[in-house]
Each structure stands twice: as C-alpha cells, then as structure tokens.
Amino acid sequence: MTTTADRPIDTRLINIVHDAIRRDLGRTFDTLSIPIDVRRRALLADHLLWTLAFLRRHHASEDANLWPPAGRRSPGVPP
Questions:
Q1: pTM value?
Q2: Residue 26 φ then ψ, to 5°
Q3: Residue 66: Cβ-neighbour burial (10 angstroms; 0-12, 13-18, 19+)
Q4: What is the pLDDT of residue 79?
Q5: Rounded Cα–Cα distance for residues 60 and 64 (Å)
Q6: pLDDT digits over 3-49, tens only?
Q7: At 16, phi and psi to the nearest 5?
Q8: The dihedral of CA 42, 44, 50, 55: what is its sign?
Q9: The dihedral formed by the CA atoms of 41, 46, 48 and 50, expressed in degrees to the nearest 10
Q10: How far is the CA of 1 from the CAs of 4, 5, 6, 7, 30, in angstroms?
C-alpha cells in the first residue's frame, strides 16, 4: 500500500503560481518603464497591490501546508 508520505509532494501548482507572479511582476516593471497615463498607472498600482496581497497569502499557505510535510520527510534539514 502506498501512503501519501511515500509519494513526492506535488508542487506543480506552486510552480505555476510562482511563474505567473514572476511574469506579472516583469510585465508591471516593463509597463512602468514607459510613459503611461495617470489612469493606467492607478489601475496598474491596484493590480500590483492585489498581486502583493495574493503573494502574502500564497506564502502563508506554503508555510502552513507545504513546509510542515516537507520537514517531516527530511527531519535533518533546517527550516
């Protein structure tokens, strides 16, 4: 019988989320490096604030759900 602890932790979704955040932050940087009107800058700022709030929630979820099982599998590895 295979238990969950016997299988690797599935990090595919985490990688997708990290790639999307990096992509969006890169696009934000690119957009801010060219002249844009005040309205678009405000919209971009709102999106950036949402992205950063999402990133905080995402990392809190990793801290609660990813790292504890990973630590149990490799007890000698420091957090």
A1: 0.74
A2: -65, -45
A3: middle
A4: 62
A5: 6
A6: 466 678 888 999 999 999 999 999 999 998 999 999 999 999 999 99
A7: -60, -45
A8: negative
A9: -170
A10: 10, 11, 9, 11, 51
